[in-house]
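Students often ask why we bother encoding 3D structure as a string. The short answer is that it lets us treat folding as translation between two languages. Here is a chain of 390 residues written in the first language.
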Amino acid sequence: MLAVIDTHPIQYRAPVYRQLSKQLDIPITVIYGSDFSVVGYQDKEFGTKFAWDTDLLSGYSSKFLSSVKTGGAQCFEEVSAQGLGTALREIQPKAVLITGYNHRLYQAAFYQAWKWQTSILLRAETTDHAIQRSKIKSWIRDRTLSLIYQNCFKLLHVGQNSETHFQRLGVPDTKLIFSPYCVNTQSFQLEAADRKLLRNTTREQLNITNTEKVFLFSGKLSYRKGVDLILSAIAKLPEEIKNQLVVLFLGNGELKSQLENQAETLPNTKVHFLGFQNQRQLSNYYHAADMLILPSRYSETWGLVVNEALHHGLPCIVSQAVGSAPDLIKPGITGNIFETNSVDSLAKTIEDSLYLCNNSEIQKQCQLQVSNYSVQKAAEGIAQAYSSLC
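And here it is in the second language, the structure alphabet:
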């Protein structure tokens, strides 16, 4: 039995667990700290309450340490490790897959696995590029993580930055297995016919012409995401370019009012604020767009909206802080990369990337680049790690 430790059901992880159980025949039970993401919760950065509209629980076995209905954790920060030891004793797993190391639940999982001498597999957002740290903090972090990694049976890297991080800390290649970060595409509409229909209907609803170029931001409207850089960069473009641009902001957050004020200073550029949209609505806007922009400043260990966009054939402009850039962005082909927190660099990159817009060959290259970052590949990596233990 493989026990997976996760704080709550997550829309891009649940399909991997389902694939492990149903398609790869790995005996699996996921121990969740809470069910708040299933029943609905208030997300601080999104600034709204929502529940995911995709199936997060069927196809694999799961246990909850607490539930909102009975007074349990109502958000990520409230999740505790209470009851974890009992749950693990009931399951008696051969191995424990831990999906992070910063949260108290994950730290308790490491302790419980060490206590019961259960093999540890780690699949987490490991990177050296998300946050700038002082020398002393970096030293303490390196020593702590090195000790953790020494006690893991296998370490599953989700991409190039993750693999480089493990190698820098001396993890031998024999302990490393690729299990890529991925999104579930079942809720998307990805066929050429879907693109044509949804592009036309969504643009018509938003009063966007066929000749206008649409730039999309999808995510939390927060300083961390660098969303305020987009309109500032567009303001620096030549008038003939600004006049043909449309910007879609998909999401909510703390900077919405600031963005609305910025939009008023760009009278010749259309700007739409579409609010939070759940998974099944995303294809409408990805197909209507010509380019995704993800200008994150920090703590963007991956950026799964890049996966979503590329699956739709949509090239991406991302900052150097976006963790998936080395894996998914081939400059001049699937998008481009600009200097983090630089309005001038973003403006130049937008201007240099216009030729990528609505290009059928570029669309094919985008889908090809992301094809190996799939639910199937992620599950196969975990299955390989577990099978090597057995």
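Translate back mentally: The mean pLDDT is 95. Keep this in mind for the problem set.
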